[in-house]
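A reminder before we start the practical. When you read a complex entry, don't treat the lines as separate problems. The point of joint prediction is that each chain is placed relative to the others, so the output describes one connected object in space. Small molecules and nucleic acid strands, if listed, are placed in the same frame. In the example below there are two entries. Take a minute to note the order of the lines before looking further.
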Amino acid sequence: MRRSAKAATAFAAVLSVYLAACVDPQEVSQMKSKVDEIQAQQKDVLTKLDELAKSQKEILAKAGTGGAKPAAEAPDPNKRYDVSVGNSFTKGPADAVVTFVEWSDFQ
Amino acid sequence: MDQVLKAFPNDVRFVFKNFPLPFHPNAMPAAKAAVAAGKQGKFWEMHDKIFQNAKELGPDKYAIWGKEIGLDVDRLKTDMESPETAAFIADEMKEAAKASVRGTPTFYINGKIPTGRSFDLYKSMIEEEIKAKKKS
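Here is the predicted structure of the whole assembly.
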């Protein structure tokens, strides 16, 4: 029994020396600096994402308060909207039964 | 639109309202040109010129087209820059917001928004409106 325990200790010692030999300390320091670099980059990415989220919020806030803009809700095909002729330019008889209104953009 | 007016010469009145989109740089000057031409009674003539040449809009074009359709070009230029013209367009855009206009073009047939864009759909909606009117 004691002999086998001794053998196991010796084996472990040999193994640890062997493993230590496998890991080149220079390599370890290279890996460490690589990890540091990746961490730094990740921090940059997170900061950029924060900036993007902030600017998106600002843009949305501006869009919400911008002058004349289309209504937010979807038009209802069954609803009759109150659309008057007003001073707008027309074509066709003034006493026509049907008024066909177009809102358009020249581009 | 001309197709609709031709099909219903006595029953349809067509109304054009401006909604120049802010991200179309030529849209507002074009709208101003049409409204300014309207002050000389030639809104539709300018409207047609603009639509026919929609891909080549530019500040120097309106005077050329104005001349072609017989406008006083100096007056056109003055009217294009007048606050009255700007206010006219602003009013139409305000109305658009009230009428739930979400994009261009948006059509209304007696206040109802067609669910698609086809002559057949417009025709059937117009016929329905005429029928409803005759019953009442």
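Discuss with your neighbour: The helical segments of chain B are 2-7, 27-38, 43-52, 61-68, 73-80, 83-98, 119-135. What might explain this?
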